[in-house]
Every structure is written in C-alpha cells, then in structure tokens.
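Supplementary Data S3. Sequence and structure tokens for construct A.
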Amino acid sequence: MSKETDSMSPADSGGLSSQCGGGEEVPVPFGWLVLVLRGTAVLLLLAFVGAALPENWMKVVYEWGGLGPWPGGTLLVYLARAVSILYGFYGLLALYLSFDVRRYLPLIRFLAIVSFPFAPVMFAVIWAAGLPMVWAVSEPTSIVVISALWYVASRPARLTNAAEPGAAPDPART
C-alpha cells in the first residue's frame, strides 16, 4: 500500500468508518467497494422481513402481484420463507465482507463473477414457472447489476496494489 493511502483520513475516503483487519481506516480505493457491499447488504437484509410474514399477508402479496389465487399449502409457505432467509443470509455475508474488504477481496471478486451466470439461470427458472414477465426481467437484472457493481468496485486501478499490504505502487496503473 502506498504512503498516500496510509495517510488518508476517513473524510478523504468518503467518511466510511469500516476497518480493515488491524483496525486502521479503509484505504481510499476500498471506500466504493465498502459502500457497494453495504448497500447490497441493506437491500438483501430486507428479505428477512418476508420470511417473517404471516401466511395471510403472503396471500395478499401473492394475489396483489398478479400471480392468481393463493394456492397455499405448507410447501409454498416453506419455500417462500426459505428463499427469503437465503437472500437475507447473503445480505449478512455482504455486510460481513464489507468490514474487511482487503482480506476478503478474492472472495468478493469470486462471488461477483459466479453471480453473472446465475442471472440467466434465474431467468429460465422464473420463465419456466410461468411467473409474470416483470418478475422474469427484474430479478435477473438486479442480480446482474449487483454482480457488476461488486466486480467493478473491486477492480479500481489502485485497488490491486492496495490489496497487498506493503506492495509498492504500480506506476503503470496510476
């Protein structure tokens, strides 16, 4: 990491108070990535609310969404809650990763990359299930947007050297 990023104050890095493993402030190149991860976390943590909805509220949302009459049943309720909990846990993961982006940078990039093919798979699953087109477009699109944000935010020009403690700045990247 360069002396320039060592001497940056929290205000210079966008005021983010995330810390790296040793307690020092997040270097400037990581500020955007921290923000993206935490934004993703907030969005996905909202899924826990869906997991806690009473079944009669699920029925109202289901029918309001134009999915037809509520078929009910324990399997549908289980699957709705399980998917919501899974999304919520992915939000917890994003939040956790945001507190030490230097350490988890390879994992963050891996998750961003493997999420790209997940979007067309989700489109196919939604399409085959006969859900409305707005659903078939919005969920895969949100997956692509979040994946792209994670990928782009983890690859700024100075981030490669900042990810390696003690690395000298690469003049070709500045």
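Construct B, processed identically:
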Amino acid sequence: MRPLSIRFAFAAALLSVVAIAQAGDGSRVHYLDIVNRAHERLVAMSAAPVGGEPVPVVLGEDLHGGGNAATVRLPVQGCVQDLRLEFRNGQQVMYPAVDVCAHRGLTIQPAHARRMTAEELQKQQRVARED
C-alpha cells in the first residue's frame, strides 16, 4: 500500500468511528408519520421534551382529516416527547410522553379531536412531568 492510500484508509476509519459515536448520543433526527383520521384539518403541531417548552413542527401545509397522511421532522432531540396538535376549529390535543424512537407513527382518531381548555393542557403537562 502506498502512503497516500494508508492515510486515506485511516481517515475513512476515523470518520466512521466519529459518525457511530454521534449516532449513539441521542442527537439523531426523528421523523414521525402522522395519519389524520379526525374530522378536522390539522393546522399546527409542536413538540417538546417532556414538560419542556414546545417547538413548532413544520407541517408544510394543513393535514386534512379523513385519513390523509404526512411525514414530519421533529425539531426536538431525544426519544420521549410531548406532542401538541391544533385543529382548524381551534380544538387542541396533547399526546404526552410519546416515545418517537419506539413508535414512528401517530394516528389521530376522531375521539381525540376535542376542545381542551388551558387548564386541561396544564394538567396534562403536570402529569407528564411527574411520570
């Protein structure tokens, strides 16, 4: 082997080790497949570490109900996240402590699309923090 080939092989091996180390630290990007079976259009979504500050999720466009689906990139690192959804009619729902590493998809059912008061959302957040 020529010296240049040895250097190239060493650099490639070093980059592989660094990439593997970074993949194992929980900083990978998470994607979520959403199926909206609710009757209302999903207009906004946010993700947060459990009990943390929500960060908006880019939907691209509203996700119509009746079974339409989309894949979204979650802006929060870590496996367990609180997901908050908002529908066109103002209804909100929160899915607390969703393990996005173990579950790649979220199906929104019509029964979940109900109006939540601010107190109900705060109560759900407190319960999620206590778990």
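The CA atoms of residues 68 and 121 lie 26 Å apart. The two ends are 57 Å apart (CA to CA).
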